[in-house]
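Lab notebook, bench 4. The sequencing result for the construct came back, and we need a structural model before the next group meeting so we can plan mutations. Quick request posted to the team channel:

Model the 3D structure of this chain.
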Amino acid sequence: MIYLCIPFSHICFCNQSKIKKKNKASGFGAEQLSKILKCSLLWVSVKTMNYDIIFVGINASDINYSAGRYDPTVKPPFDAGFEGIGEVVGLGLGASSDYTIGDTVAYFRNGAFAEYTIAPAKECIRVPLVKPEFLTLLVSGATAYIALKRLGDLTKGETVLVTAAAGGTGQFAVQFAKQAGCHVIGTCSTNEKAGFLKSIGCDRPINYKEENLGETLRKEYPKGIDVVYESIGGSILDVAVNCLAQKGRLIVIGFISGYQSASGIPAFKGATLPVKLLQKSPVTLFCNKKTQNISGPPTHLKVFETWCHYTSMLLALSSTLSPINI
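Done. Here's the predicted structure in token form:
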């Protein structure tokens, strides 16, 4: 079975003598010119809060959204940026029971590319420290968590393949699968990344620049792969489909290989895909899953609030993380 789950124009918020900058896309794609505008400071409403953004994250979702690929109804100019961490500086009456001035919060909502924003309190998550590492939980961590928990149906002892395993969401998928007691294979492009994968628990890193991925999987895993967490597309997707075990689950969370194209979608020859997937799942016939109403990352991020305090997962994040301090 298969699951398919820039220059910016600056708007300045004037708060007495302090200017707050906000990035706003003036067009689709990175080739657009930018300009500086000014507008009045917006104040909190009953259930919202103001906060100064200290760190923001940038990932593939931001590229695709800014290119107009995620929501065709969005027209320039529009806010951009999905994840930020900052300090609460203003509270609406309805938010004051949950937060206080000075609290550190993570923010998952469009418009994070700014020095200052207003957000509904229910869409923010309290974090213990202003650390950029927590940003990785908002998009990358939530993607892996939702996909593997809701769609992966991981069972102890199963074999899981994670493509682009050393990437932002891949490294979370590796660790979640290991926590579930699975044997984890991770693809990467350098020996340095292979070493990183070993350090976070990956059982079999595969550097596809030095090993043939398809041949390696067929030789070392003749019974096939139970769950594939796939984000590259193209030839890697072909290998993933071919290596699935019977009743295996293929979870497609992205297609990096096509993000630089005009449409953001890679060319795909899928005429044989239904036949291949049918061969992998002769008993269930694709019917053991129904379309689910996934409530979205903010709900699932409540799980991460506890992890922020107790888990060692953040300590295993790549030391090469380069946060942007705005």
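The chain has a mean pLDDT of 75.
Will bring this to the meeting.
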